[in-house]
Design brief:
The complex is a heterodimer of chains A (about 300) and B (about 290).
Chain A (H helix, E strand, L loop, with lengths): L7 H9 L5 E5 L5 H6 L6 E4 L5 E3 L8 E3 L1 H11 L3 E5 L13 H14 L4 E4 L5 E2 L6 E2 L11 H17 L4 E4 L14 H12 L2 E5 H11 L3 H6 L6 E6 L3 E3 L2 E3 L8 H13 L5 E4 L6 H26 L2
Parallel strand pairs in A: 1-2, 1-14, 2-5, 5-6, 6-9, 9-10, 10-11, 11-14
Antiparallel strand pairs in A: 3-4, 7-8, 12-13
Helix pairs in contact in A: 5-6, 9-10
Chain B lengths: L1 H14 L1 H9 L1 H4 L7 H11 L3 H20 L1 H7 L3 H11 L6 H17 L8 H15 L3 H14 L5 E3 L3 E8 L1 H9 L11 E9 L6 E4 L2 H9 L9 H9 L3 E3 L14 H20 L9
Antiparallel strand pairs in B: 1-5, 2-3, 3-4
Classes of the chains: A alpha/beta (about 300), B mainly alpha (about 290).
Amino acid sequence: MSVSELSPSPAAERLAALPRLGVGVLYNPSLREFVRDHAEALDYLAIIPDRAWQDEGPGAPVRFIEADAQVEILDRAAERLAIVGHSVGLSIGSADPLDSGHVEQVARWQARYGMPWHSDHLSFVRLPGVDAHTELSPGMALPVPYDHEVLEMLVERVDAVQARIPVPFLLENNVYYVDLPEQEMTEPEFLNALTRRTGCGLLLDVHNVVVNATNHGFDARGFIFALDLERVVELHIAGGSELEGLYTDSHAGPVAERVWELLPDVVAACPNLCAITFEFHEGWYPAMGAEGVLRELRTARDVWDRHHAAAG
Amino acid sequence: MSLLGFQLALADLSASVRLCARVAADPDAALAGYDLTPLERRRLASAAGQHGMRVNATLYRYNRFITLSTVMPGTLHLLGDGARAVVDEFWAGRPPDRNMRRETAHFAALVVRMLDDGRLASPYLREVVAFETARYEVAVAPRADLLARVADAAERWPDGPLVPHPLVRVATFAHDPQPLLTHLAWKRPPPYDDVAEGEFHLLLDCREGPFTQRPLDARAAKLLCDAGDRDDAPRFEELEELLSDGLLVRADPATAGALHLLDPPAWKQATEAALERRWIHENATAAHRLPWH
């Protein structure tokens, strides 16, 4: 039975049964020593598996060349911390056949580290080339239009992923800098329909919402509370910066103040929330240092602890 | 499927402010090559005129540039003010490749072609390009897998042909690499008066895990480079030292090059052929696929 065949209630129960991990950080290479020296500050480590391998493409004799040095670091971290996977390469929004090779590789990594769930982005990063062995890349993650045609395509693809990966699969809400007019659904309507139809969970990137709200002039709180928050398993918190007159999701150092403002209410409103992940660009580590990262984690933990204390 | 046409067009727009300007000015003409519904055409025309497309274009350039600067910092430093023109030419001729090794290998090939035809001139550039591509190739090689293959080959073919260990490379320089690479690391502008000319070699080595590099004498460098593909095999005594050091290893007599998992000749040819097909396709269907720039 595929997850989408479950009634909404069992699908929600599946998310409700996930372990409440707490507060973690999305691993980047600048955090190698931090993870070794400050594991006690982390409840888990989120990783981007795709950064630990090189994808040689579907036609290659060995498709995924894993970087042993990266894998060794993650293996050591996994001895002390739970590992959560957050991929960037599935390209679930691509109008091409689902990359089953990538899904298989993700499934191997899920099993390797016993990840309690796995997530990727609701966007496309790959387009088909001239044959099955080539592909084109847009060079960035681009959003899909929130139309019924796209929803049907995504339901099929999410079902296929969930049929192969034995843990809940989450999709992250987009950041986008260009408005596409005449979309058939709003983003919350689309996300709610997708999670309802497939049983998948949500990775709610609060900073992405803040970025979109800032650039496109809507209310971030209203957006978030229009979502089915029972589906939210993980939150991303981050900072941004100005570029070309817009506010961007650049993961520039500390968490944005607007994200901290929203976080307590969001945490309280997500009954199946299991994790709050701080993400930042590795280029900011020299400026933040270990103490800067610890400060962000402590602030997130305060929110997490206050909510759980209040909830009894 | 028109969604695919829409995604191709959106990707092209996001990479090119010039295409955005053309679409904003005359969407029907500029989007004529894409398979689009009227709604998709309206959406793209709207998107092309939005300020956010400038952000997308900047992110596109940043994402592609960060790959090159991560793998080839010395090359970009030596290109100096000319780097932008070289990078622009590279991006105009080839869409992004999510595989960093291929992306940087093709950029390196372009730089070498520009050196060959005299469009670039730097006494250090050719050797630094070769060094940085070799360094990256060996650093990202699948070490555990290759070590297992080396051990397996040694057991199965104890008298098999000798080939360089797949986790080492030889980088050859026409300038002393020690001061040259120090200057590059400190981002000092050329010329470098204290860098001696001559023939120098570095051994790039990931056999033990972390990347290391050390000087290699000319004789050992030649033996390593020639191993596996020379007709007049040198006397064994010449190779014994390299064999005992583990720099040469045994290989399957039938496929002596196959230990190089990333670049066995057949795979390399297949990759090049695939890229060539894509290049031909893109140019042959220019009316449908607007150029990447």
